[in-house]
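Regression test attached.
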Amino acid sequence: MIDKPELDKRKAFILATVVYEYINTAEPVGSGTLAQKYNLGVSSATIRNEMAELEAGGYLVQPHTSAGRVPSDAGYRTYVDRLMTPESLTKDDSRRIRGQFRDASRELTDVIEQTTRLLSGLSGNLAIAIAPSRDTHAFKHVQLLWLSARTSLAVVVTSAGVAAQRVFEWQSDVDADTLTRLSNALNSRLGGRIMEDVSPAELEGTCDEIGATREMRDAVRAIFAQSRQTEEPDLAASGAQNLLDQPEFHDLRKLRAILRIVEEQRTLYDLIADELAPDAQRPGPSQPHVRIGHELGPEALSECSVVTMPYRFGDRGVGVLAILGPRRMPYGRLIALASETARSLGDHLNDVEIR
Amino acid sequence: MIDKPELDKRKAFILATVVYEYINTAEPVGSGTLAQKYNLGVSSATIRNEMAELEAGGYLVQPHTSAGRVPSDAGYRTYVDRLMTPESLTKDDSRRIRGQFRDASRELTDVIEQTTRLLSGLSGNLAIAIAPSRDTHAFKHVQLLWLSARTSLAVVVTSAGVAAQRVFEWQSDVDADTLTRLSNALNSRLGGRIMEDVSPAELEGTCDEIGATREMRDAVRAIFAQSRQTEEPDLAASGAQNLLDQPEFHDLRKLRAILRIVEEQRTLYDLIADELAPDAQRPGPSQPHVRIGHELGPEALSECSVVTMPYRFGDRGVGVLAILGPRRMPYGRLIALASETARSLGDHLNDVEIR
DNA sequence: GTTTGGCACTCCACTGTGCTGACTGCTAAA
DNA sequence: TTTAGCAGTCAGCACAGTGGAGTGCCAAAC
């Protein structure tokens, strides 16, 4: 990508104003409107000339010859990176966010889902949340419970709550005492460790220590594997119907394509999970990111933008909040919303963390 | 409601054909089309007369003077109750349903969600599932686990798997032995009982037996209350984007109203939960039900129909599957799909039930 | 009594036309 | 470099005209 020519002050101001006006009205912005509504100190003809140059530079596009201008991906990008003034939340928004987490559930999946509801309600767009990978939770406790001679229940508790439970049917009788000894051995060896650091070899070693059968060894491996990973990405989305309000999605074909992606969680996950890896390594506070139109990849989302904001849980756990909407979204407000919600969510998770 | 006049054979056949044709084409059906495509043995003029009478009887309506006819709620109702021939599933559908449950999760909420995905995929409509109320599960096991001197974890296991877990922070030190004795006492007193039959007095009695503190009594009550009920109805829905394909929902206002109801789970639950109560009492196999247009209640759903089918879990647990779509839905096929899926789901739940 | 062909009538959906208004680019003067 | 003025472009809208699908009714046929 070639560097865009630098924008002089007036061009920058005009671009910012076009984006601002278009975000508010959803109508192509003409030179006349600009001269009238905003005090630029120059005539519409001058603005016209500037806008022509902004179009040549790739910041604006014209839907048709005799229409006003609309920002391009590059126009939005410049706006977000350099022209936009950061916003802070209204008192009311802050209060609603705090209120939501004050009496939120302790259950990770419930919290994640409630957070997407909150965020979609406040933002008027589609909200998505990815739960922190279980690999990064700390192991707290495992208990093998005796239910009957040939059945038992295994429960694994991590710092984020119960990660997995599973019923086993044994081939041969098992007594409660063996289960307790095995539980104790595993607890003393693994307590406090991060799940992804626990190796299968270590599990087997612990089993051998108390003379567990081969069958039990397999069972222990299975239950640990299950508590580390889920088959489907752990993700929630809500507020899809908000998109119906946006004039750009009145075309049903486009809307379908988008909703298909949302329903098919895998694609949605891949879209946002990019934010996980870099943030987990980078030290310091997390940063919101904005991805605009074609930057997102899928053609179906070429008229959408996404604001993402990682949140932290414990030392290692990282999840992501995201807001998906039309490119014509109020970036400042949504960034502020996502940031504050991510912060509150992280705080809440740390509060309810099992220590 | 006044009884409709009986339909003679020919009227019945014409009504059935109009409904059938309209379901397939989504276009108002005219007398000419009927005479041409279906072998009625009479001319279009005769059909015209019959259709006029069917309209007078309230079975058909005309969108405008020079258009064909469209079924009314009463027309669909008659079709579903008396005219339609029951369908059975294709080999392929049956295979997909069986395949889905062969390696389905043991986790109740996962199964419920996967079932809605399956059903929305097969039916091409919106699928909804309500999980059986936890009140009807059988109590299996409770374990109070010692995590540290002042924190412990309680896990309640019911016949459908883990129902609740909760971390307690105690005001004063608690030792592992007390927790174990309390767990044992609760288990021996309550094992196998249905959750809704367990009274708070009984819980308190058991606590007193082993000399538990007031604080622990409250904790036990809380964990049992939590395992019986969830705040939100336990419900899953998927396939909303299927509705976009239906021509009747190309009107965005109508679509919005419907999606709003779907997102707001409470209304959706109330809509379908009616099916729970009567079926739980009635002996014998469950029956599918169809509710059409205004029968559903909410004005927003006046152009929709819902097929519901209860499924059973254990002796008492009853949940419901539902398919929501336009009134112009292939009732025979959807009833067969819902029935077969409900049966498979019930079987699966009973297979994975903890005994 | 029922059925049928014929006919006049109705009304939606579509098409083409012309108009309006918003906006542009360009040019020449300030 | 800025501005006023002007001609040109094009979407969107209102309007009228047309075609066609379908109806209701009536009189003749069965």
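Expected vs. actual: identical. Residues 42-46, 49, 63-67 of chain B lie near DNA strand C (CB under 10 Å from a C1').
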